[in-house]
Please model this.
Amino acid sequence: MKRSIFRNRWLPYLLLAPQLVVVVVFFFWPAFDSLRLSFFKVAPFGDREIFVGLGNFIELLTAPEYGRSVVYSFVFSLGVTTLGLVGSLFLANLANQKIRGLPFYRTAILWTYGIAPPVSGIIWLFIFHPSYGMLPYLLSMVTTYEFNWLLKGWVAMLLVIFAAAWAHLGYNIAFFLAGLQTIPESVIEAARVDGAGGFELFRRITFPLLSPVTFFLFLMNMVFSFFETFGIIHAVTQGGPGDTTTIMVYKAYVDGFVNLRMGYSAAQSVILMALVIVLTVLQFRYTERKVTY
Amino acid sequence: MAMLLPGIRKSTINGRKWIIHLLLILAILLIGFPLYYGFVISTQSLDEVIKVPQSLLPSGYLLENYVKVWNRIQMGRLLINSTIVAVVVGLGKISIAILSAFAIVFFDFRGKQVAFWMIFITLMLPVPVRIISTYQVVSTLGWVDTYAGLTIPLIASATATFLFRQFYITIPDELVDAAKIDGAGPLRFLWSILLPNSGANIAALFVVMFIYGWNQYLWPLMATNSDNMRVVVVGIASTVPTGTQLPEWNLVMAAAMMALLPPVLVVIFLQRWFVHGLLETEK
Model:
């Protein structure tokens, strides 16, 4: 791309300096240091480092609790993503009709974007509260099953999935609505003239045309549930009961900051880094401009 | 599922619209219920809260509960800290992104590609994948329990840089040439021409970044030890009663309401900016 530019030997570097300093000091150096630490065992309080090669990784991959945290992470992330995408696709379709009061409806859905995941977690914690919560109370009227997240891992998992999906609803809807608005009216009209009704229209026209947005949101929801939901786990379940909601990010935190196993935690960070690289590459290779319409 | 799109025949349109309204209202009530429930609980006394099922109508203890929890966890201080973090992170991200994008678009220099990729790669390094080492850097700098420690590690922004880069590329060459002929240097051009034209982008980004900053949890949790430096989202987590404590969920919910109100109001009242900013930054 050729364009009119300014000439100056040092100014561009000076302009870039603030960002690059932050990037190097708080991103690259720590990432590099995590990579290095992952090959060491560090004595508590960090006074001695012993090189262990791939020791930390071997220990991780053979530890059943790490395997479980990988499984819990995927159950959690896929749960949040599925619930979020299905719910918001349905809602966005409703909120994209030509009806009165649309701005009100949209605002009444989008506000959820403002909720911090841990705050959502605390509200849902009360809804699920075994003694005082609404949900166990209602369920106790129809079943004797003990719907207690403190005792049942799957109930705890359901709790954190609801909390995360609720906090992320506004985000998903904003993108689906934007996607729906790019579908030309003429395409819809043409399909109608050909006799396509409500669901048929959605299945054959709207949904395929939305697939780039859906795929993008799938990736963004996975990134969100893997990397931005730490607060929900920390504030609500602390990884329990047992370790049934110990997702990978939470485990890396606990091993590093609570158990003071720096090298072991750093190795987990490296694995998470690999995961986020895959998700980012997928996102930039297969979404937005590259997808056909 | 016939309600997904309105039909073409006139006779059915009104019926379908009615169903769409009904479904939307039901959906909104469902989405809003957790918030409403939390609010109602925050207005009840402890006796009312522990009597299951609780009334779903507000009671008369709103003021009492909010004042009590405000004093108990120094809510004023928490809210000020969150505001500082959100504003500094928002403005910081925008400022350094503008400078970087300006350098990348309007100058030719050695290492431009490298700089661009360095900024891009930060997308792949969210806080959780470098927790311990980032903490060690901040601790070495003596920044634990400082506003600098809370904010500066968060202000790099690939997405904001890309947004401004996209926008600057659309600035016509003639504008640059005209500025040069008038004898304006690059900084003058940035200040007098680019910035006044960036208002919409800056506002949109600020709304998104403000919410991002306000809702941070992991980093503020690690970067602070003293209660004085806590942000509100971290601070309210400490109000959740554990086993032996009084189940003062009315106070927990009062604290939660105060923590979520500012960002939710921002989304509601600055919705246009927020949607624009959200969609643009993720491109």
